[in-house]
Amino acid sequence: MENYSKARTVEQPCSCPFTGLPSETPEVRVKDGSKIRNLMRFALSRMEDKPASVEGEGDGEVVEAKRPAEQVCRQIMFSGVGPSVSKAITCVEILKRRVRGLHQYTRLHYRTVQEVWEPLEPDAGLDSLTVNRNVPAIWVLLSKDPLDTNQPGYQAPGSFDALWAQAAKEEMASQRHGQRRKRGGGGGGSTGRGMAPGRHAGRPREPRKNKGRGGGGQE
């Protein structure tokens, strides 16, 4: 592909996996360049009792049906494709912590993305290439009203609290274990400065020799 350059990328349309949703249900399409701050400001303005002001910077795409300004939505949907999947999950978890008691549906699919490659030199006799790639996509539906618990991908309200509590306990246990290792140290008892283990601190004295035989000495 060194003789080609990517001209454009086209995402093939994909139908919403959730059927029978009310017409006023907003959809937040999370893009790779979207800012979580702006996405959450819009989602909270639709789900909280006190709507917040919405400021759009053109980095994400928000699609919603027309509704009265004073009406608060009962459901909201997030979607993300490819690199945006993790960002969409982050937005969902933040909203679940701000608005308690939300029921959740999660759907995972593959979406077809079409890439068109053009030759760098048009006179080289090379044709344009079209590459179809299947990328992962996620749809998450959050609802204040109870959902069918028998449907796949259902998550009850508050079920994420136990997961966060377990993660916090494991993190505290690892921190305590690290502090104990620092206090205990890595070696045993002290053997003296500059001395190898097992060697005495003092050198044994040699026996004193007599200067003269028979105890006599020169004066």
Topology readout:
Blueprint: E1 4-11, E2 27-30, H1 36-47, E3 61-63, E4 75-81, H2 85-98, E5 103-119, E6 129-143, E7 154-155, H3 159-184
Parallel strand pairs: 2-4
Antiparallel strand pairs: 1-5, 2-3, 4-6, 5-6, 5-7
Structure description:
- The longest helix is centred in the last third of the chain and has 26 residues, at 159-184.
- The chain is 24% helix and 26% strand.
- It is flat.
- Helix 1 (36-47) crosses helix 2.
- It has 219 residues and is of the alpha+beta class.
- Strands 1, 2, 3, 4, 5, 6 and 7 form a seven-stranded mixed sheet that branches.
Write a brief structural summary.
This protein is α+β, with helices and mostly antiparallel strands. It has helices at residues 36-47, 85-98, 159-184, and strands spanning 4-11, 27-30, 61-63, 75-81, 103-119, 129-143, 154-155.
Average pLDDT level: 78
| Low-pLDDT windows of residues | 51-58, 64-70
Give a quick account of the main beta sheet: strands, pairing sense, barrel closure. 7 strands, mixed
* Count of alpha/pi helices: 3
First-last Cα distance: 106 Å
Q: What share of residues are in beta strands?
A: 25-35%
Number of strands: 7
* Rg: 35 Å
Estimated structural class: alpha+beta
One letter per element, helices H and strands E, the order comes to EEHEEHEEEH
Helix content: 10-25%
Shape: flat
